[in-house]
Amino acid sequence: MSQNELLELRNKIDDINLEILSLLNERAEIAQEIGKQKKKSGVNRYDPIRERQSLDLIMEHHAGPFEASTIQHIFKEIFKASLELQEDDHRKALLVSRKAKSDNTIVDINGEKIGDGNQRFIMGPCAVESYEQVKAVALAMKDQGLTMMRGGAYKPRTSPYDFQGLGEEGLKILRDVANETGMSVISEILTPHDVEKALDYVDVIQVGARNMQNFELLKTVGKVQKPVLLKRGLSATIEEFINAAEYIISEGNDQIILCERGIRTYEKATRNTLDISAVPILKKETHLPVVVDVTHSTGRKDLLLPAAKAALAIGADAIMAEVHPDPAVALSDSAQQMNIPEFNEFMNQLSPYRSESPIG
Ligand code: PEP
Ligand code: MN
Predict the structure, then answer these.
(1) CB of 208 shorter than 6 A to ligand 1
(2) What is its EC number (predicted)?
(3) pLDDT at residue number 360
(4) Residue 240: which residues within 8 A CB-CB, separation 6 or more?
(5) Smallest-distance ligand from the CA of 153
(6) Residue 21 main-chain phi, psi, to 5 deg
(7) Engineering a disulfide at 273: which of 43, 66, 265, 311 sits with its beta carbon 3.0 to 4.6 angstroms away?
(8) What is the pLDDT of residue 326?
(9) Which residues, 6+ apart, have CB-to-CB distance to 66 below 8 Å?
(10) 101: CA distance to ligand 2 center in Å?
């Protein structure tokens, strides 16, 4: 084949490409028109029977050289693209996305804000064990000027024989201590059934890692007027995490705080692997504040401080860590909770790294 013949064939291909392009766009405009008509008459946009008829018609006329399956695949993609064109814009952009809302969401917890550019701390015991235990932590937090106290009343434990938490009694202790010391309460709720009851006690509902894809729980907390702290699932991708938050916001509750708490990897040196880059990704992709839980991500007391420094440096809106007056006797996560002098040291060491002015 001469150079000229090749050039001629290539020019033909280019012309055909442009023809296909213009036909595709013409087709898209007609599909949009159909979409509008369907919307007016309240008809569902996706019509599998109609799609089947179109596909059959195409296949009746198809005579190669492409395989039938190839042609079907190409047309299926065209159908899909047209359907997407007909969908409302809000369905394409998730409600939690920056595309949907460019301003940062600021979650107000009794006047303390998460996501306003000031980096905050959420501290407290792993599990509520007694009034005295919670009170000791609350007083230490108060001395440090902190107000957001966490503590588990319902504990999702790996073994059914481990301490499961004090339940409602634990919530009551948290509320009483919080009222006496000026704290706010952040506590995990495990089932949709307990959400209503929790509203009387907590200021923020925590959805734990093991429940990140408990869709009924997500929908239930989406229907209430309480901030939700949503933890990343043990093996959840960022996309799955974002979609879990979307479940909540799509029910009407936009007061959502995302919490990176480490993910499961092959690495055994830490309890989980802290996915620190998830913080800027989540902040870029969504408008929600992002917290880093240094306790459950590292599972190691000696890593709490460096992990917290990294989290502050990378732009986390808050740090979460566990504090217990006597970790050696704690009923859960005994090895990784700080005692009160360690907590004070942790706070002192972090103070130069903490941003207290808007970081935008
Ligand atoms: C917790 O924060 O108490 C907890 C159980 O953590 P996670 O759900 O991240 O494992
Ligand atoms: Mn814990």
Answers:
(1) yes
(2) 2.5.1.54, 5.4.99.5
(3) 35
(4) 212, 213, 233
(5) 1
(6) -60, -45
(7) 265
(8) 97
(9) none
(10) 33
pLDDT band, residue 309 (cuts 50/70/90) = very high
pTM comes to 0.83
Atom of ligand 1 nearest to the CA of 188: 3
Q: What is the tens place of the pLDDT at every residue in 52-90? A: 999 999 999 999 899 999 999 999 999 999 888 877 655
The number of the ligand 1 atom at minimal distance from the alpha carbon of 126 is 3
Structure letter (DSSP) for residue 242: H
Q: What is the pLDDT of residues 339-360, one digit of tens each?
A: 999 999 999 999 999 877 544 3
If phi > 0 it is left, if psi is from -120 to 50 it is alpha, else beta; for residue 191 that is beta
Helix, strand or coil for residue 98? coil
CB of 152 within 6 A of ligand 1: the answer is: yes
Name the residue with the closest Cα to ligand 1, atom 9.
209
CB 68 within 8 A of CB 59: yes
The two tokens of residue 57 are 């018609």
Residue range 103-130: mean pLDDT, rounded: 97
**E strand or H helix that includes residue 76:** helix 68-86
